[in-house]
Amino acid sequence: MAHIHPPQNILFSLPRTASHLLTRIINLPAQPSLARPQNGEDGYLFLPVCIQRFKNSFFGRDPSTWTEEEHHLFKHALQESFNEWTSLLQQARATAKLTYIKEHINFLVDPVSEARFFGYTASDRDRRFFEVEDSNAPSRIGKSEDNITCLPDHFLIHSVKPTFLIRHPCLTFPSNFRMALRNQSREDVLREGGAHRWECTYYWSLSLYRFYIRSEEFDRGSCVEDVKFPIVLDAADLADETLVRKYARAVGLDEGEIVFEWARQDVEGAATASILGSTGVEKGKLGVEVDFDLLEERAKWEVEFGDVLADRLFELVSLSMGDYEELRAFRLR
For the chain, which residues make up each domain, given as ranges? Predict the structure, then answer.
């Protein structure tokens, strides 16, 4: 049977995977059954955690080298963000409403899993420093090896329904670099190799997708009979109105509120500027029916970014293609 309770949705994305476009299309402000967070952003609740990562250069560091103050600042930001999310979920359930929150999955990565990704031999005992406390289930706190986030297994499995948004690395990662160069000096961007490895990868998405698939407790039912969670959406398919409407029904949204055209707004510099400055879905930017030749793309990146960043992009894309293709094989059709 299809899932009958209002889903509490979590959209796991990466920077520049078109999450702003997706949420613009499904038109969250107009959804009558939706409980929305106070920040009006419909997500990024864990941005304070990301800020702590950048302020303290945590990327790939062995957690055993963190100072007591660093542990405290990171854990405090993590717990506050988690509390804000669980409070919203409680309010939604009390009024029989659903939620739809988007988060960059790398914001939520457990520093122990991250350290191992960077080649360090972080100990499992360090995980206790990064486990959030869920007041709704104090006796069930814990994370399994498969769970690469800072969130407890029981919360991921029993409290939220995941969608994974992906976009071809040849589009996503160069766009990430362009945004970085608009907001930082070239010298700073060149120094951020660790941060780029952390956010320009589908390793986190694929790992968490597998966590859900392996869980025998996870209820995969959606509001549509033939759609099962976890759902994978490829940004290239967002121009397919039939598919997007099917997705909206599956996650409990009103497909009648879906929009594929909107009024142009003049906003410069913001991450959403290209969407606000458009009047609808632009297929060319989504990579619809495009076959990318990585060597040809490398030559374009050299012209645009220079040798060092072009080489970095080439490596990041090459390393991520296998994970991207595996996730894409499970995408909603």
Answer: 8-328
